[in-house]
Structure formats: structure tokens, C-alpha cells
Amino acid sequence: MAVTDAGKTSPIEAAPLPAPPAEAPLKRFLSDFADSRLALGAALLLAAIMIVAFLAPVIAPQDPYDLATVSVLDARLPPGTENFAGYTHWLGTDGAGRDLLSAILYGLRISISVGLASGVIALFVGMAVGLVAAYVGGRTEGLIMRVVDLQLSFPAVLVALILLAILGKGIDKIVIALVVAQWAYYARTVRASALVERRREYVEAAQSLGLSHARIIFRHILPNCLAPLIVVGTVQTAHAIALEATLSFLGVGLPQTEPSLGLLIANGFEYMISGKYWISVFPGLALLLTIVSINMVGDQLRDVLNPRLQK
Amino acid sequence: MSVFILRRLMQSALVMVAMAVIVFFGIHLIGDPVWMFVSPDMDQQDIEEVTRALGLDRPIWEQFGYFVLSALQGDLGTSFIFGEPALGLIIERMPATLELAFTALLMAVAFGIPLGLYAGLYPDSAVSKAIMAGSILGFSLPTFWVGIMLIMVFAVILGWLPSTGRGDTVDLFGVPVSFLTLDGLKHLLLPAFNLALLKISLVIRLTRAGTREAIHQDYIKFARAKGLSTRRIIGVHLLKNILIPVVTVLGLEFGSLIAFSVVTETVFAWPGMGKLLIEAIQQLDRPIIVAYLIMIVFLFVVINLIVDILYSILDPRVRLGDRGA
Amino acid sequence: MNDAPTLQVTDLKTHFFTKAGVAKAVDGVTLSVNRGEVLGLVGESGSGKTVTGFSILGLVDQPGRIVSGSIRLNGEELVGKPEADLRKIRGRKVAMIFQDPMMTLNPVLRVDTQMIEAIRAHGDVSEEAARERSREALVRVGIPSPDERLQSYPHQFSGGMRQRVAIAIALLNEPDLIVADEPTTALDVTIQAQILYEVQKLCAETGLAMIWITHDLAVVGGLADRLAVMYAGRVVEEGPVDQVLDAPLHPYTRGLIGSVPSHNRRGARLSQIPGMTPSLLHLPEGCSFAARCPRADDACRVMPPLEGFGPSRAARCHHPFTAENDGQEIDLTFNE
């Protein structure tokens, strides 16, 4: 009598039981994510940045690359100055007289596009290689992972730099360079989690049912590798954006006709010594906000998606 | 111990050979290698001459043998711009880069370990949270942007430190160094800090994580039960355990410091091999690019070897040759 | 002076102030240890025996702290002493040995470093003299070729050897009291026996007092002079080891003994105490064992005091198994 009571009233762990699984996974994921206000703020900021970047041609006050509207007479105007046409440049103008706010919006569009494109392609390349390595195993796996390790021992910036030195400038070239510099991170991630999944019983069960390799890989193993892949994908996309900016700043990335944020910063750098700080600083801040917000979202994703941390 | 080093040396040689193969055939894969050795203003006849002179009309295996042979003799081609051997140019610029990288490494340790230790010992204090927020920022900020901001604040606005060049140098064992003159030190400070920032953040994280883990270990409690002073517990028992991963990671990161010095050297006009590389890329001075690549691979291999040996010295558990009872 | 106990703990309360609430890990512990005596401190995990040990050394970490009570070592009050003074006592007057010898020695420091520093933390001793004393201590705990062993790293020792080194370190400054927290649990039975034998000899020879914390009654039965049984942060029974083991007063002690195979009658069912140790965050009113106790009734809603039974025994129970009420056979198996 007293004994059964004890079982109810004095459990060792007084902590509440985990939430009932009835909740929809997506809803639960969203509420977990929103647990951190900072991360939620970062996610909202990131969404806002993406929207204004992709709407740049619509919302930018000026088309900074339309020679008809840009006048060199307006060059290097400080923030808040009104130009001859009576239009106010809230963030000032750059060395060629372009409205800096507009240039930043267009630059963001290029930077984010390059980052996303290279991130997605590298993800698929790395995923394919990682899955093959984990699934096939043996010598093939050993060889693939040797290459991955060798490449990872060299900094991505160096790999991309050398590639661009050979390939030359251009959006397509920088995407190729970033993919080559980053695929190995994805391959390593996918292989690690695929290896774990591969040893699970359900994979063995699927194999004994005679399911095709492709079906086992894509329907059974891959979905279970998605969580780490998403986390790495976010962080690596931020990396790609920073890397592209760095390469463009160094003058080996994008040509002047396609000015990303990195190029804007580089162009403003020469005016910095003379105190015209805004030409470099504002594009830099835009870059900074983008990278930091992606990283914060990635951090929170890691916490939310990590099953070991789930209480 | 010597057996281990010998084995590692052989592995390193293997990596070097592999990289040489990749570089050589990579160049072939991408385009006619003669373009790596001619300047853009040569005409067709000149190009054919160079092709013959370089033996590029021979079978590819023969060419590879020639490439390896001349590379082993230290001949990696002649710079178009300077008209000097590319390898010599790289080596001439190397001390400046190494000085920058070593100073950055020193800064990473000098700032990173105390800050990380503090953040690990008092994780809930406001200062610790500020340190950690700073380290996250340090990870996120692109190096070149931080460099520009450093120049803006310390050189343009405050006017405390110079923004370009190496300043006065003096020869130390025949190698020019900046850190022995006041002017050189002033020039060194900003670029070194710029280069170090990422690594400072890394060391803070590593040290903090190590401290958080070690502080709950029984051996720390046992050390306290022995009545040791806090200073000795932190300075010897804790620190020696934390230093192992920190030194290992930092050693491996030294290569990335040299790689990132490309960025910092460009921002601060620091006359090192990174700046030389960027100029070479912009001026299509291909022999320098190849020489830089070979040199950097060599440096990486050497660094990895040194780190492995250092690691085995630091951690008695992996000490080579004695397996324990 | 000689009659006074080496250690006298009175009504000690050590609580942990966590986010989930206040965990009363030690909630009114009273015990004493005399010179040359081994006190066995017995209880399940979570009963507060380890925290009691740490409290004695002043090693309770945040968010825990000693709330009230008194710890007197040779008459000197330790509770409330500044950390600097406590540090001088730790390792010199009170030493501690931990459960897992694999974890207690610093893996990256040589054994001699770890021994010499323990001596030099408490006195101006030359490196040479400290090394010599370390050597002697290793000999005393039965470690062969001590000179060579001093130069070794912990990973070069076996588990039993490491625990001997830990004991040697505890002995270095000839303390008055050693708190040993399950020091043999992680070891093989044969090594356990050797170490127990040596510890017993040490106490008898040197007048060292010892608190041997364990959950293993079989170990402590052969080693200790007296037993203190802890449950949910309190001592529920105390007395000479033979008397407590042969005729336990408290139902909990009885349950513990019943669950040890060697103390059971052959063929009898090995009993288990039903239920679980209560959460220290939400201790019930009254006797904490009542919920699991076959003898519990309404009286147990009030916390029983630690009451004396004869000159040397005490128990915290409203319905102890005393001679007068123990006539009928009590069902040891705790059937419902």
C-alpha cells in the first residue's frame, strides 16, 4: 500500500516528462527554435535581408549600374547628402557616384546568390560522395576519405584562391572555386552520420527485403543524415559568403561588372585613408549582419536538431 | 621516437609527391601548361620556342619527370615580372610572412588562454558572457573587413599606428625582422592582431571547453583535497591538461595563419609571400603561383610533422615507444 | 584530549540550491570518529554520504554549501573557516581518497610531481626531502621499486596500484583523519582485500581515524569498528559494526542487510527494498523511509529523533527492531 504510493509521489526524477509526441514535428521544431529570442531575431533579420536583397531591382532607389542615372559629379558624397537631382543619398555615394544604399542592395543580391548557389551545389556533391563512401565502404571509402582529409588540411581560402588563379574571374568561376573548396566538409558530415545509420537494424532489414541500393540510400539512410547536413549547410553558406567577399576584395573573385559586397568594400578601401569611411563601412556592415545572422541561426539549428541535447 | 619520426618523414614525403602529381596534372587538365610559363605579350613564335625549351612537346610522363627533377633542384621556373627564379622570390618574402604568422600565434595564446580560462572558471559572470560573445563575433567577421576597421580606427581616426608596410627592420642571423625595432613593432601590431583574431576566438573556445570539462574531473578535486593552492591547481593541474588540445590545434592552425596572411598582407601592404601571390595572380605571373603552391604544401607537411612530435612530447599517454605497464 | 573524538560532526546540513529547488543532500548528520577507529558510512547512492565527506574537507562546490551545523576536528571548528585556512587543513590534517583511481591522479603529471607538491603545499620542505618522504609513502602502501615508480605517469600503473598511490598521497602528511569515498569499489576483489588489510593495519599502528564511505556492507563489515547508516541525508542508525549487522534497529538497515547475499540464510529469498530513494528535492514530511517501510504507520508522519539504544547505539525510528518487539518473526522480504 505504502509502497505503491511511494512509486507515485517520490520519483527520483521530479523533472516533467518530455512533451507528448502528439505535437506536429514542424510545430515543435519551430517552438524549440523560438526558445532563443536572439536566434529568432537573427532568423527574422536574415529573412528581411534575403527579401530586400532579392527585391533589390524593385526597391532600390537607383539602378547603380544604369549609367544614365549615375553621375560622377555625385561621387563620394557623405551619407544624407542631397544630390543635384534633389535625391537624398542616405548612405552616401561611392567613388563612381553611385547611390551606396542601392549598390549595397544589389551587392547583397550577388553575394547571397553566390553563397547559396555554391552552398547548394557543394552540398549535393559532398552528399553524393559521402553517401557513396559510407555505403560502399572498403577501399573506395578509404580512398575518398583520404582525399577529403587531405583537402580539409588546407584552408578553404587557399584552395579557392589557387583555383581562381588558374580559372580567372567570373561568377561561374567563383562558384566552382567555392564548391571545390567546400564539398569536403559536406562529404565528411554525411559520411559520419550515414555510417551510424548504416549499422542500424532498419537498414539491414531493408537490405534483407531486397530493396535496391538507391532506395535504401535515398529513402532510409539519407533522411537520417539531414539534420547535421542542414546545420553544416547553414554554417558553410555563411562561410561561402565571407569567402566570396574575401576573394573579391583580393581582386581575384568577381569582375567589376558584378560588384558583390566584397568588391564594394575593396573599392571604398582606397578612400578610407582620406576619411571617407562610409564607402567601405556600410557594405561591410551589410556583410557582417548577413554572416552573423546566418551563423546564429545555424547555432540554434544545431541545438534544436541535435537529438542528444533534446530533453 | 626516431622510428616514429622516420615513419612520419616518409609519410610526409608521400604527401609531397602526391601534391606534386596533383599540381602538375591539374595544370595539364585545366589548359596548355605552356600558358603557365609564358607571359601574355609573347607572340606565337615565342610561345613555340618556350614550348620546346621547356620540353612541353614531349610525352607527359617525360615532362613530369623533368618537372620533378628541376623542382628537386630548387628550380620552379622564373618570374615573368621580376625575371628572377620564382622560388628565390618566395623564400625572400617568407621571413616577413613567418614573422607575422608567429606573432599572430603568440597573440592567440597570450589573449586566448587567459580569456578562455576566465570564461571557463566563471561561466556565469557578465565578463565571461562578453568574452564568449566576442569570440563568436571573432569567428564571424571576415578577416579583411576587420583589417579595414583596424586601419580606420587606429590609423585614420586615432592615428596611433601606421597602416602599411613593415617599418624598420634589423637583420637577425641574416634575416630581416621587424619586431626588434620600435617602428617595426608598431607596424607589426595591427596586421598581427588582425591575423590573430580568428585564432584568439578559437583558443578562447578550446580553453573554455577544456576548463569546463577539466574542472569537474576527479583529479582536480583530488588536487584540492591535497590542499594545493588555487594558483597551482589552475596553473599546473588544469592548464597542463588544457594545453594539449590547444597546442595541437594551434599547431595545425599555423598553416591556416600562413594562408590567411594572404588577406592580411594585402590589407596592410605587408611585404610577405601572400602579397606576392596576390600580385602574381593579378599579373598572371604563373611561375610564382606554382612556386608558392609547392612551398605552402611543403610548409604544411613540415608543420604537421612538428605538431605530431610536439603532441607526443606534451601528452605522456601517447608518448612514443613506451606503452606503459 | 585523547578521549575527545578526532572528528565530531553535529547536525550538519549541506544543501544544494539548484534551479529545480533546494536539494537537502545532507540534512542534520551527526557522527563522530575516534583515534585509530574506522567508521563505516553506509548508504545507497544519493543518501548524502559522499557530500558528508566533501563537507568535512570543505570541498562542497557550487551550488551547494554548508547551511548549518558543526564539524570539529580535534576540537577545532571547521565550519565557517576561511578558504585559506581550510586549504592548510586539507591534505595535512584531513585527507581524502576517491572512488575511481583511474580519475584521481592527473594523467599528464608524473607521480613524483603529484606527491612532492602535496608535501610542499604544507611546509617548507626541500625537493629532496619531499622526494624521500614520497618514496617512503610508496613503500608503506606496498608499491615495489618505488624509485622507478616515482618517475612514472599514472597511465603506467594498474588500477589497484593507482589506488595505492592515492592512499600514499593521502598518508604523506600523516593526517589525523582520512575520508575514503568508496576507494575499493572500482577494484578487483583480491586487490580490494589487500588494500583493506593494509588500511586496517595503518589505522591500528598510527592512530589514524578513518571514515570509509561505501554502499557495500560486506566490505565494511570486515573493516570498520563502527557503522553509521545514512538514508536521504540523515544518519538513521549508528553503532558498533557487529551489533548493527547482527541486530539492526532500523528497518532500512535491516533491508540493506537483507539484500546482501552473504548475510542471508541459505535458501532464503534475497530481498530487495521496494521503491526508490526519495528525491532530495521533495523529501516527504516525517520519516523519509516511511514510504518504503513495512512498519510505517501514522506515527511516522513526524520525523523521529536519533534516539539512543544502550550506551553505544542509536537509531532514528519510531518502530525499531528492539529485543521486546522483535519476538515475532519479521518478514524480511518486504512482501506487501
From TrEMBL, chain A:
Keywords from the UniProt entry: Cell membrane, Membrane, Transmembrane, Transmembrane helix, Transport
Domain of life: Bacteria
ABC transmembrane type-1 domain span: 108-298
Gene3D superfamilies: MetI-like (1.10.3720.10)
Transmembrane segments: 38-60, 110-136, 148-168, 277-298
Main subcellular location of this protein, as a coarse class: membrane
CDD domains: TM_PBP2 (cd06261)
GO CC terms in record: plasma membrane
Membrane topology recorded in Swiss-Prot or TrEMBL: Multi-pass membrane protein
GO biological process, one term: transmembrane transport
InterPro entries named in the record: BP-dependent_transpt_permease (IPR050366), MetI-like (IPR000515), MetI-like_sf (IPR035906), OppC_N (IPR025966)
SUPFAM superfamilies: MetI-like
Compartment list: Cell membrane
Family named by the database record: Belongs to the binding-protein-dependent transport system permease family.
Record-given protein name: ABC transporter permease subunit
Species for this entry: Stappia sediminis
Lineage of producing organism: Bacteria, Pseudomonadati, Pseudomonadota, Alphaproteobacteria, Hyphomicrobiales
From TrEMBL, chain B:
GO biological process, one term: transmembrane transport
Keywords attached to this entry: Cell membrane, Membrane, Transmembrane, Transmembrane helix, Transport
InterPro entries per the UniProt record, alphabetical: BPD_transp_1_N, MetI-like, MetI-like_sf
Gene3D superfamilies named in the record: MetI-like (1.10.3720.10)
Topology in membrane: Multi-pass membrane protein
An annotated GO cellular component: plasma membrane
Transmembrane segment boundaries: 12-31, 100-121, 133-161, 188-207, 242-269, 289-314
Domain annotation ABC transmembrane type-1: ranges: 94-307
Subcellular location per the Swiss-Prot or TrEMBL entry: Cell membrane
Domain of life: Bacteria
Similarity annotation: Belongs to the binding-protein-dependent transport system permease family.
The protein's name in its UniProt record: ABC transporter permease subunit
Species the sequence originates in: Stappia sediminis
Automatic annotation (TrEMBL), chain C:
All copies of domain ABC transporter, residue ranges: 7-257
Protein location: Cell inner membrane
Biological processes, Gene Ontology terms: peptide transport; transmembrane transport
GO MF entries: ATP binding; ATP hydrolysis activity
InterPro entries per the UniProt record, alphabetical: AAA+_ATPase, ABC_Ni/Peptide_Import, ABC_transporter-like_ATP-bd, ABC_transporter-like_CS, Oligopep_ABC_C, P-loop_NTPase
Main location: membrane
Topological type in the membrane: Peripheral membrane protein
Keywords in alphabetical order: ATP-binding, Cell membrane, Membrane, Nucleotide-binding, Transport
SUPFAM superfamilies reported for this sequence: P-loop containing nucleoside triphosphate hydrolases
One GO CC term on file: plasma membrane
PROSITE patterns, per database record: ABC_TRANSPORTER_1, ABC_TRANSPORTER_2
PANTHER family in UniProt: DIPEPTIDE TRANSPORT ATP-BINDING PROTEIN DPPD, OLIGOPEPTIDE TRANSPORT ATP-BINDING PROTEIN APPD
Family the entry assigns: Belongs to the ABC transporter superfamily.
Protein name from the UniProt record: ATP-binding cassette domain-containing protein
Organism: Stappia sediminis
